[in-house]
Each structure stands twice: as structure tokens, then as C-alpha cells.
User: Fold these one by one.
Assistant:
Number 1:
Amino acid sequence: MTNLQAMSLLALLVGFFLIYSAVSFAVVQRRPIISALRALGATRSNVLTMLLCEAALIGAVGAAVGVLLGVLIGRAPRGPRRRHDQ
């Protein structure tokens, strides 16, 4: 495994845990709202679908921002360039 693949895998793993912690925090914070939805007739699958859609949205936005920043940083000038004449 090359260093680039290892770093990519590490970044993917860190991103997964960041999304997991954000969604877990959202569930704990919204426990009263989830209870109210359940009392009003929402099924467990409705609540689960709502939370999974939110997690997918967070992941998609994070991936889009990461790709955009990666492209911008990759194309940024890296300092003075010297022209080598042969």
C-alpha cells in the first residue's frame, strides 16, 4: 500500500467518525423531538429514514467541500517558478 493510499484511507476513516459523532449528537439532542414525532404517529422507520437522510446530506456536503478545496489547493501557485532553458 502506498503512502497516498494509506493517507486516503485514514482521511476516509476520520471522516466516517466525524459524521458518526455529529449524527449521534443530533440524536441525543433531538430525543424530545423524536419522542414527539413517535407520539404523533411516526414509525421507527420514519425516524430512522429522517436521521439517515440527514447523515447522508452531511456526508455529501462534506465530500463536496473537501473535493472543491482539494482542487483549489492543488491548482494554487506554489511560489516563484523558474524557467529552465536547455
Note: The mean pLDDT is 86.
Number 2:
Amino acid sequence: MTRDHNVTTGKVYFSVIQKERRGDYLGRTVQVIPHITTRSRRRSVASRATRTSSSSRSADRGRHRGLPFLEAIRQFKKDVGRENVLYVHLTLVPFMQAASELKTKATQHSVKELRAIGIQPDILLCRTDRYLPPGIKSKIALFCDVEEEAVITAKDVETIYEVPLVFHKEGLDEIVTKLLGLEPRPCDLSRWEAVVRRVKSPALRRGSPSSASTST
């Protein structure tokens, strides 16, 4: 990956301003829609180097400055075809200590807001401190209009390197390949699991003083 894969608000607006100063818009009024949204979509397309690529938009639904980029990803499916786009929404499922239960209302409201602007999430990554039970997943799937298998637990972990293992356990890789029509391939994460073990247990790291003393 290069710096061209990092599409920021500043890059998009600066590019549009440069085009306006050169006269590319032929004196027309430059507006957020369609000029900013179109440029954002084109930057995303230009950064794709493989058959599949991911694009992260950390735009707060409730903040005005994030709306153009949400509109851009809504329009993106018209550029490449609905079958070639997968919307993955990261949301929160908090555990309320006072009630001793998981609450799904925040997720329902978040998805409702996205659907109001024309974005229907295909997969939900639910941030929580524990694995979601089947009943909670079923409830989220029902109210958010997604498949139950597409409700993925994004559990808090000790190290960021554990995240792929949690997602694999939840079946995220399988549902992504299924929804995008990709050919499934066998997945061997044994080497990655070894990395996580070394990160979590420094004594297992090769060449560390503790491991050397243990071997002697």
C-alpha cells in the first residue's frame, strides 16, 4: 500500500479546489454534491489495485462534515455494481452492568440512521466485551435486516493481533466470500496464532532472555 490508498478529507477538498482554480468546472458553482462526492468515489476507485479492496469511512452519522463521504459510499455501488460492493458497519453492543444484559438499541438506531440515507449494511461488526449469544444475534439480525450469520462479534481482546482470529472464529471470512461471490479457500492461521502467543507471552519470543534461561 502507498499513501495514495489513504484518502482523507483534506486530499479530496484540495483536489476539488485545484480543479476549480484551473477552470476545469468552466465557471460552474462547485458544490459538495456532486463535486466532493464524485471526487471521493474516484479516489477510492483509483486506489484499487486488486480484484478486492477495502475502504474505511470513519464518518460520524450525526456530524455534518461526514455526510458527503457517506453519500459517496452510497453512490459507489452505482459505479461498480451492487454485486461488487459490501457494506460493513462497525457498531456498539454495550453490556450494562446494572441490568446485567447486553443492549442492542444503539446498534438498531445506528443502522436505522444509515438506512435513512440509503445505505443498508450487509455485515455488522458488533463491538462488545464478550461473545454475543445466539439470542442477541437473532434480535439484531431481525431489527437490522441482515442475515444472522452476518452479525459478527467484534470482541475486546488483549492485543490487536487477536482480532483476525476472533473474526475467523465468528465466520467473517466465510460470509464476505459468500456475499461477494468469491471462491472460498482453505484458511490456515496456525502461523498467525503462533504470533499471537508470542505477543501475549514474551517468554516464548525467540532470543529473549527469559526463553534462554528456560532452555538452559
Note: Residues 210-216 have pLDDT under 50 and may be disordered.
Number 3:
Amino acid sequence: MAWECLMVSDLLPVRSSLTGIHAGLYYTRSSHAFIAAGDMPFLKSEMVQLLINNLEPNRDVIVPVTWKAINPFAPFTPNGV
């Protein structure tokens, strides 16, 4: 699976995970953004596609859930959050 992606730099002088998320959401032009850590292990394109397939206008956030746990480390979130 291939996606067109835009690489951006942090907007704030402090470097942290949150400033990276901030910059990503700032530059996002679509209604939702997929957020995952760059070092997230075992991230599979099938999981991302499943999340995309479950996006609906009345849902604010889509978070992966397995029989073991909720995984808030790879959500789709609205651009306006």
C-alpha cells in the first residue's frame, strides 16, 4: 500500500512527541490524520486500512482495539483536535 505523504518539521523550538503531533495536525489538509510513533513496532498497513474503512463523519477518533487492549498509540484523529 502506498500513500502520498508530506514530511514537515516541528513549528515549536522544543522537540518532543507532542510538538511533532502538533506540526502534523497543523499541516494536515484532510479531515482526519493518522498518528503513529516513528518507532512503533509491528505497524501493519492492513490495520491502517481497517481504520480508514471505519472512518465516519459522526466519529471523532478511531482507535485500534484488540481482544487484549485498546491501543491509543495509533489513532485517526480529526484535524481540528
Note: The two ends are 27 Å apart (CA to CA).
Number 4:
Amino acid sequence: MAAVRFALGVLITLAVVVVLLPAAVLVDLVSGGTGLGLCPTGLGACSTSMYTFSELLAILCLALAVLGGGIAWCLRFLHTRGGGKGSVGLG
């Protein structure tokens, strides 16, 4: 049970990082940075193709879907095994 709870904590932390990553890139770009390496020469000379936004959005959505599935599995596992009595609000 402890391993599943630890995995749940790691998955939730990773999901928060994936959600906050675009904001961190945007803040870095606005403050004159490279967007965490996304635009190495800065925002003015950053090459933008027509698929860049779609690719990044698809990667972020896929990562969130995988993490969400892992979180749901961990919660379901804890609920069915009785390891989350009172702490997991499923059912």
C-alpha cells in the first residue's frame, strides 16, 4: 500500500509540473529568456512553424492523459484494497 501511495504522490506531482510548465515557459519568454530552451535565440528570432503549437499541445495533453490514468488507477487500487479508508473519496 505504501508503494501505491508513493506512486500516487509522484503522479500528482508530475501532473502539477506538466500543467505549470507552459506558464513557466511563457514567464521566461516574457522576461527576455529563452523559454526554458524552447527559443534559444530569444523570442524575436524564434522560428515558429505552423505545427509547433499543435505538437506541444498534443504532447502536453497526452502526458496529462497518461498521468491522469495512472492517478485514477492508483485511487481505484487503494479503494478496492481498503487502503484508503476515509482518505480516498471514491464511491
Note: The chain is about 65% helix and 0% strand.
